[in-house]
Please model this.
Amino acid sequence: MSPVKREGYKFIQDLCIPCYQTDANMVLKPAAFMDVAQEIAYWAAQELGFGYDSLHIHHTAWVLSRMHIHFEKLPAWRDNVRLYTWHKGAGGLFYLRDFQLMGADGLPAVTATSSWVVIDEQSRRLVRPEDLTQLLEVELQVDDAIAEPAPKLALPKDREAEPAGEHLVSYSDIDIIGHANNARYMVWAMDCLPGELLQHRQVKDAYINFNKETTPGTVVQLFRLQESDTVWYVEGRVEGKSHFIVRLEL
Model:
């Protein structure tokens, strides 16, 4: 049975923040928000007739390409929260979906916008929106959690990123599509920041681009760059090519 309910064009899920989704400050981790966001996105798409099962029949699948998350006030352990999501239709090659997490006080705690693509599960190539018109046809009456779509990211060109370790893509990273799950990239990025920094400051905005998928056995070289006192970039490269990039504003 679906854990979401529907109000108009929005889908809703009530959650209680568990300890394993929080950090040492007992507040929600950025990657944990991505976990719950992708789950409600799955159920909402399923209810609208273009979820995992429907696409899998056609050997296609949803893949997250870009995301911008704004943290107004991080929910804490044991908070009862309400998560909303809604589909915003196509924008170029992307399909847009927004999210809003209402805190225990009933006020917006987290807002996010995401850009998705559909890939062929066998060739791993993009499936263009015009080839999916009938499958993804839905009446839209939407608003914006964040008005601007998640932007394309690039490292600042006026300085060099420094090595920040590497990560071997392994069992715990892999999702049902057979590649590293989107939230795992945020885990890797957060682990590249100085630990003492995150003890005293929280992420206000997180931006992420997924440029190429990573699969089991891949070694991802991690690089970080501090643009200012409050802005950090983390990029993951495989054989010199960018596979993801994250911008974190603290």
The radius of gyration is 18 Å. The mean pLDDT is 93. Residues 60 and 121 are 5 Å apart (CA to CA). The longest helix spans residues 30-47.
